[in-house]
Amino acid sequence: MLTPAEKAIYEWQMWVPGIGEAGQQKLKESSVLITRCGGLGGLVAYELAAAGVGKLVIAHAGNLKPSDLHRQLLMTSDWVGKPRIDSIVRRLGELNPLIEVLGIPENVNNDNVADLVGQVDVVVDCAPLFEERLLLNRETVRQGKPMVECAMYELQFHITTFLPGPETPCLACLHPEEPPSWKRQFPVFGAVSGTVGCMGAMEAIKLVTGVGEPLGGRLLSMDMRDFKVMKSLIHRRNDCVVCGN
Asked: How far apart are CA 171 and CA 160, in angstroms?
């Protein structure tokens, strides 16, 4: 059950209609995988840790580079050249020592994807490479786990949620093949990745608590140059190689 310390920390969010102690208990008992944990995933992880999600599994390889600092808010300038996952675990532990943070110094690949997805209730996909996104999609469909999909480019971002079940689409319905223009490095502001990261965290909170309506089957897009918002339907493809018949 929630301890007095937890009730004191999460008091304000438990006032949200539909949350209360029961919703906070669901967050405490939940587990979320975040891949990866840079400018986008870092904000997802930060907000989920602050909200009291009981276990965060974070897959992120590589050392910190100077070019990461303008958007990766779980990093510090004195950490350049060191493993990013160590800074991620340390910073999240400083924010909320009441939760478990499991840092995996690897990116998603064929060898680890089944184990990573199998450890959690919800997956939040923040990978910069589409190869990783399609791997996660295949595995979440196979294991029947929901996946929040977040992406950004320049001043634009997109977010949707793929729910398990025969009625909802998956990422392969939207992108049957890896887009040829998708690159590891691209122009972006940290404020853009942070915005969609916070929205991705809220989607995960909604999935865990049952409060609100997730973006199942809908793609929300925004261009922050003029704050134009568009919501599109995503249809399930019967010939999808992952979730189709």
From this structure: 9
Q: Is 220 helix (H, G, I), strand (E, B) or coil?
A: strand
| pLDDT score at 188 | 86
Neighbour order of strands in the sheet with 31-35 = 100-104, 55-59, 31-35, 122-125, 147-153, 156-162, 218-223, 228-233
Q: Which residues of 194-219 are buried (b: 16+ CB within 10 A; e: fewer)?
A: bbbbebbbbbbbbbbbebeebbbbeb
**How far is residue 41's CA from residue 101's CA, in Å, rounded to a whole number?**
14
Q: What is the pLDDT of residue 181?
A: 64
Q: Under 8 Å CB-to-CB from 6, ≥6 apart: which residues? A: 24, 28, 52, 98
For residue 123, report the phi and psi dihedrals to the nearest 5 degrees: -115, 135
CA 100 to chain centre: 17
pLDDT tens digits, 131-154 = 899 999 999 999 999 999 999 888
Cβ pair 98, 56 in contact under 8 A: no
CA distance 67 to 74: 14
Alpha-carbon torsion (51, 115, 243, 230), positive or negative: positive
Q: 124 φ, ψ to 5°?
A: -115, 115
Where does residue 20 fall: left (phi above 0), alpha (psi -120 to 50 degrees), or beta otherwise? left
Helix (H) / strand (E) element for 204: namely helix 190-209
pLDDT digit string, tens, across residues 60-102: 999 999 999 989 899 999 999 999 999 999 999 999 999 999 9
